[in-house]
Recover the amino acids of this structure.
C-alpha cells in the first residue's frame, strides 16, 4: 500500500518493533514509499535483536534501496539462524550483483529454511549475482517451497542454467514458482530448467513464467510438454 513513510518514519516504526523481543513471526510491508539505504539500516538494527524469529517477511517493493542497504539487510538475515520461513521482496529498487551476492551469502547460512520467497524483479542483477543466489539456494536441502522472481534482470542463459542446477538438488520441493520473464534467456536456459524439473517428483504446485525472452517455438513446446508430467502446472511462455 502506498504511503509517505520515509527513512525517518522507519526509524520510529523500528523502535516500536524492537521492544517485542519474544516475537517468533514478523511481517513488515513498506512498499512504494521513500525508503532508502538509511531506513534499511535502521530496520536491520532492530531486527538483529529479534533472535527468536522463525518466520520473517519483509516487503520493500518500489523504494530507493541500493546494494548498500541490501548489505545491511543481508548481514542481519544471516544471523537469524532459527528461521524456517523467509520472504524478501525488493522488487523495483536499485540492486545489482553486489547486493545479490550479499543476500546469497546470508541465505546460505539458513539451513533450517523450508520456505523461501525471493522477489527481486525489476533490478539490475545479472548472471554473476543470479549464480550466487542460486548456488546458495541449492544448499538449502530442507526447502519444500521456493518462489524466485528475477523478472526484468538480465541473468541470461548462464543464470538460468545455474538456477536449473540449484533446483535439481532440492528433492523435497513440493511448491516451485519461477519468474524469469524479460531476463535474456534462450534455448539453453529453457532446456536446462526443463531437464531439472523432471527430477522433482514431489512437486504439487508449479508455475513458470519465461515470457518476453528469445525462445523458439520448439522450446515453448518443451515447456508446455511439462504439463503432461505435472498436470497442475501453469506455464507462461
Amino acid at each position: 500500500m502506498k504511503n509517505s513513510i520515509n527513512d525517518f518514519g522507519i526509524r520510529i516504526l523500528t523502535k516500536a518493533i524492537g521492544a517485542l523481543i519474544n516475537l517468533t513471526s514478523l511481517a513488515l510491508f513498506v512498499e512504494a514509499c521513500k525508503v532508502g539505504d538509511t531506513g534499511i539500516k535502521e530496520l536491520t538494527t532492530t531486527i538483529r535483536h529479534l533472535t527468536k524469529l522463525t518466520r520473517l517477511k519483509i516487503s520493500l517493493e518500489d523504494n530507493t534501496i541500493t546494494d548498500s542497504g541490501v548489505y545491511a539487510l543481508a548481514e542481519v538475515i544471516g544471523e537469524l539462524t532459527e528461521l524456517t520461513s523467509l520472504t524478501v521482496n525488493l522488487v523495483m529498487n536499485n540492486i545489482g550483483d553486489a547486493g545479490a551476492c550479499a543476500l546469497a551469502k546470508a541465505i546460505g547460512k539458513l539451513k533450517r529454511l523450508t520456505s523461501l520467497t525471493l522477489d527481486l524483479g525489476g533490478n539490475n542483477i545479472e548472471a554473476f549475482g543470479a549464480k550466487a543466489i542460486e548456488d546458495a539456494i541449492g544448499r538449502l536441502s530442507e526447502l519444500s517451497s521456493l518462489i524466485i522472481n528475477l523478472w526484468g534482470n538480465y541473468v541470461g542463459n548462464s543464470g538460468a542454467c545455474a538456477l536449473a542446477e540449484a533446483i535439481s538438488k532440492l528433492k523435497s520441493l513440493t511448491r516451485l514458482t519461477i519468474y524469469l520473464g524479460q531476463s535474456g534467456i534462450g534455448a539453453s536456459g529453457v532446456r536446462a530448467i526443463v531437464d531439472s524439473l523432471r527430477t522433482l517428483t514431489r512437486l504439487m504446485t508449479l508455475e513458470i513464467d519465461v515470457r518476453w525472452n528469445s525462445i523458439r517455438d520448439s522450446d515453448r513446446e518443451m515447456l508446455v510438454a511439462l504439463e503432461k508430467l505435472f498436470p497442475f502446472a501453469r506455464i507462461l511462455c
